[in-house]
Amino acid sequence: MLEEIRLRGLGVIDDAVLDLAPGLTVVTGETGAGKTMIVQGLGLLTGGRADYGLIRPGFDRAFVEGRLAVSPDSLTAARVRDAGGEIDDGVLIIGRTLIADGRSRVQIGGRAAPASLLAELAEDLVAVHGQSEAQRLLKTSTQRAALDRFAGEAVAKPLARYGERYARLGAVRARLADITERSRERAAEAESLRSRLADIERVEPAAGEDAALDTELRRLEHAEALVRAAQTAHAALVADPASGDGSPGAVDLVSAARRVVAGEADLDPALAELGNRIREAAVLLADVAADLASYAAGVDADPARLAAAQERRADLAALTRAHGTDVDGVLAWAEQAGRRLLELDGGADSAEALTAERDALLDELADLAGQVSAARSRAAHEFGERVAGELAGLAMPRARVVAVVSQRDDPNGLPMFGRMVAFGPGGVDDVELRLVPHPGAPARPVHKGASGGELSRVMLAIEVVLAADDAGVTMVFDEVDAGVGGRAAVEIGRRLARLARTHQVICITHLPQVAAFADRHLVVSKASDGSVTRSGVTALDDAGRVRELSRMLAGQEDSTLARGHAEELLAAAAADKARP
């Protein structure tokens, strides 16, 4: 609900504030007093097109600000928070600034935001209906939504299920398109993986094989040197009698030293300790000598094995070069590539399953869309009759509104009604409201068959019919009473008052019959310099309402006859509003 609107530098308005209230608020004033600027300001607050010609001469910018009561738990509050804005104690402040150099700024909850977000938020909070602001009624999607609201659960339940399946169809189609578009890439990728995996399978590397093979190759390539070194070392440790060299080996010399020391070890414990150490050295040297002999005998100098190992190393080197890693890295890649190949090879199965799901979804959507379409068609007649009933009391007694439910052919659509029809997130139906202004006249789209004032009254009639299902929205009507008077004007006031039981309604009017039904009456007046200032917007008390209605009736606030008529209008309106 709008609590307050502030306008500055907009048209004739210098700086004015409108304090609003629940129920029906009417705004009156003499021609040119700035009432239209209020509607223009509300249009800006609801994300309307920025018209920089509205900036008041002498001002470099125009500013509009609105204070709205918003539940902290509402979807609107969540959208504001997502945009970085804040709601202070249940109050949301939105603002729009037009700068003379052609720029526009939007503030939502204290944060800069795009005008599109302002329009999105305002769509659920404020509806402006005027001769130039009835855009919602001009959209076929809005007309379909109006019929759906009127139809209630009969449409809502199958439509909700339809929406879920439609969203799933979109996901399935996107996945199928991705598989189809990428099939060639996937085939090329799979072929590359198979080729590289075949190279690995041909070589059959083992984990750590490259390091082990390098060690073996060093032994094979230097076998003679390794044997010679081992034999020479062995000869130095142990003398070989067959060599004809009588020189003792290290083992013999150490053993001799051990014997000498052992002969005198009992004379001194220190010498005995040294003898033990010599004995340990002798044992160690004997073990090393034996290991050297064994090593020399075990060195493989087989040329065939050397050639095979060199060939194996070449195969492994080619493989690791191709992958830029060692054998362990190649094996890890092969494991990942195998899993990826399974995914790629399973693509055909996925496409087949998705195609089957898509076809099943299309059948299900056709059934649900049929249920929705049938419910809309059943509701269309009653909806038109109810709207026509409201128009009868709005100076359009012979007018009828027809809700036409139709479908468009589309070779790629759903099979329904014996043909293929287009479908979308809202089903298969186009809903168009058509106006028959009088019997015998052709039914034309409502925005083409109605004048500006008639269009506003059609919107009012629709809103009254739908009011019970749309409580809480602020509705603004400008010139809804254009071209009417007398009893028709009273009926307009009565219907606005009825609508105000469940909505906040703001009406710009020049008819006293409408103003008499107000719960709050604001009058806009100009200052001596032709501008509207803060003091130029006044909330009227009972006496002030009598004077204003007298002015509207006779152009004279002090006319006894006019005052009597004004008091009569107010009393009749009050009695009417008191009825349940």
UniProtKB/TrEMBL annotation:
- CDD domains for this protein: ABC_RecN (cd03241)
Tell me which SUPFAM superfamilies the record gives.
P-loop containing nucleoside triphosphate hydrolases
Q: Which gene encodes it?
A: recN
List, alphabetically, the NCBIfam families matched: recN
Q: Can you tell me which family this protein belongs to?
A: Belongs to the RecN family.
Which GO MF terms are attached to this record?
ATP binding
Which GO CC terms are listed, alphabetically? bacterial nucleoid
Which organism does this record belong to? Frankia nepalensis
Domain (RecF/RecN/SMC N-terminal) ranges: 2-530
UniProt protein name:
DNA repair protein RecN
What job does the chain carry out?
May be involved in recombinational repair of damaged DNA.
Keywords, sorted A to Z: ATP-binding, DNA damage, DNA repair, Nucleotide-binding
**An annotated GO BP:** DNA recombination
